[in-house]
User: Fold these one by one.
Assistant:
Number 1:
Amino acid sequence: MTDPAAPALAHLPPPTRLRRNLVFGTIGAAVVLGWVGDALWGSLIDRSPLTLLLLNAKPRYQLLTVNELSPWVFYPVALVRLLITKPLVWLVGAWYGPRTVGWIESRSERSGRSIRWVQKHFPRYGWIIMLITTSNPICLLAGSVGYPLIWLMVWALIGTTVRLMAVDFVGGALSDQIDWFVSWVVDHRVLVVALSITVVLVGVWWQRRQGTSPLDELASLEEGVEETAEESATETADPEVEG
């Protein structure tokens, strides 16, 4: 079956510095909010589950909050938090085209093989891939090949909703166990929060030291595509003259 929204193979013009900084800055802010949620989840789990979900909508926090929030709150908030950066990542791919794929390939041999496989099968099976996952590399790839943003968001919305429904089902089946765990966290809140903050700080420090934190990846992407764009512009403006 051919993807009903086949890539248009059209790219957006390069962004202004302000637009680029706003997009990368917003993505970076979402990463930092996720860290805050990881650090403070033990303090928020019973006091403000909605705030926790807004900060970080990882599956484990979905499971811990699904029984505390009405479906009319849980689903919209989780969907917004999970989908909010996807158009921005797609936009980066649409701005810089194949250069973003080249950046993904340069990160590691394994990621290079994976993205090449996805790129090869994207025109035919892209919609299935995006139903399964709309991770940042997939959103970058979709933007780089000119895949329509509206269809990316349709598949992301459907796939994410199905996964949230699965969490809702599991949360209902394990409600007693979840309630017990939340009660245990509340009884040991100071210890849990202290450990969580320590784990987040040490993890971020270690990732920054290795250059593998999400913010490092974001900075690397920005620098990589900008450097390639500048080189391309220089080559176009000053072509080699043959004698």
Number 2:
Amino acid sequence: MHLSSMIPELLSALPLTLAIMFVALIAGFMLALVTTALRVRRIPGISQLADLYVSYARSVPVVLQLFVAFYGLPLITGLFGVDDFLSATTASMVGLSFYHGGYLSEVMRPAFLAVERGQHDAADSLGYGFRQKITRIIGPQAVHIALPGYGNAVIYLIHNVALVMYIGAADVMATAHLIMERDYNQYQFGTYLVLAVIYSLLCLIAWLVVRFFERRHGKYVSKTAPAKIKFGSL
């Protein structure tokens, strides 16, 4: 197969790759928010479970987490009489969401703790509840600190999406291997080169988006710097 006819076939699998990535991004982000809140507030028993989850997500290889999701979750759903519920695509989304949520929680928690203690005291002195304190004072400052780490987490997620082929999801990487097998591995270099370009472009777009928010949020923080000092001096 000529390279020009291979590229459209690879791009036809790109929507599924992007769907898995975006679901993992959104679900993982929400999971990281909840996990970080539980870890920060140190609720007995529950916070320890959140710590255990983060340790699992960071310590276990991602491909193994995908296998756990693909083979383990059907056993759980089978207990409720639900069979054949999990496809390879769904398992990919679940496994990567759990991985991304745990990894991202370890980006959010240090960012939250890096905010000056005086900012917390100022919010408490104003009578803010936990939700108000996070959304109005601590959150904006923590976001600015966490953005570079968040960008790295997104890029790592894009890299790890390529592993879903091992549980049978028909993403770009799996499609490339099918093409090479069909053509008796005649165009391995060209196929892998096209894959490298695709993943590089995805990472570049992610980096540019995060960089845009870094600059925009940096201007916001600089404009609100006097208010921050005022809160810290209360």
